[in-house]
Automatic annotation (TrEMBL):
The organism of origin for this protein: Bradyrhizobium frederickii
Family: Belongs to the HyuE racemase family.
UniProt protein name: Aspartate/glutamate racemase family protein
Gene Ontology molecular function terms on file: amino-acid racemase activity
Upper lineage: Bacteria, Pseudomonadati, Pseudomonadota, Alphaproteobacteria, Hyphomicrobiales
InterPro entries: Asp/Glu/hydantoin_racemase, Iso_Racemase_Enz_sf
């Protein structure tokens, strides 16, 4: 290698405010605890991430009210993350699949708004006669538009956690700031068991809610099926941003 080649290989490129964290996460504005495994807990990720809270985007507005009027706020926040240094954007609510096309068109970097986007990939792995089922925080408000936004078949079976004792009322109804983790886990596991009991053809489960990864292992152990969530999707997403360099 010539001296000039050695010199050029040592040039650092600028143009961003923050380096080493190529993934930006758009966060809802909430006060409930974000335990390890939750998308909003920085220790969940095996790589650095950038966070941006979207002011006024409460879980209730996004999950129960269709995120009405919030698209401009999400686009502005996504642009802020890109200006900071993000090379790709995701969000911490699966219901934001409604905004997948609009955010992707507006910011010019890869966007993955929802864990639901995994459904076609997971379906491709299953044997004939089996299909993907969904566990969501709110089955009653997960509409065909949400499914279409993520490329999910409209006949996909769905069960929500509305009938549970803890998970839904803490995350969506914001009835208190603290959370009984064991009861939240039971709520998610019971929803998954109901999904499988009512739909024997379910061969794998995708968890819509980005607060559910802490309970994915318990659900998988209970039902004996593969369980995918936002953690599985975003670790895949990030792998394309920073592929492993093999010696």
């Amino acid at each position: 290698m010539t001296n000039s080649a050695r010199s050029s290989s040592r040039i650092a490129r600028g143009g961003k405010a923050i380096y080493g964290a190529p993934l930006g996460i758009l966060m809802l504005e909430a006060r409930f605890p974000r335990i390890p495994g939750d998308m909003g807990n920085g220790t969940t990720w095996p790589f650095p991430v950038l966070y941006r809270v979207v002011s006024g985007a409460s879980p209730e507005k996004v999950v129960l009210k269709g995120a009405a009027g919030l698209l401009p706020d999400f686009i502005d926040a996504a642009k802020d993350l890109v200006r900071m240094g993000a090379e790709a954007i995701t969000t911490n609510c699966g219901f934001l699949s409604l905004f997948q096309k609009e955010i992707a068109a507006a910011i010019g970097v890869p966007v993955a708004t929802s864990s639901l986007m995994q459904v076609p990939w997971v379906q491709a792995t299953l044997p004939p006669g089996k299909r993907v089922g969904l566990v969501t925080v709110s089955g009653s408000t997960l509409t065909p538009a949400h499914l279409e936004g993520a490329g999910v078949p409209l006949d996909t079976p769905v069960v929500g956690t509305e009938n549970g004792k803890e998970f839904f009322r803490v995350l969506i109804k914001a009835e208190k700031d603290d959370m009984d983790i064991a009861q939240a886990e039971r709520d998610v596991v019971e929803a998954g068991k109901q999904l499988v009991a009512e739909n024997p053809d379910v061969g794998a489960i995708v968890l819509e809610c980005t607060n559910m990864p802490p309970y994915a292992a318990a659900l998988q152990a209970e039902v004996g099926l593969p369980v995918y969530d936002i953690y599985s999707m975003i670790t895949w997403f990030h792998a394309g941003l920073r592929p492993r360099a093999f010696a």
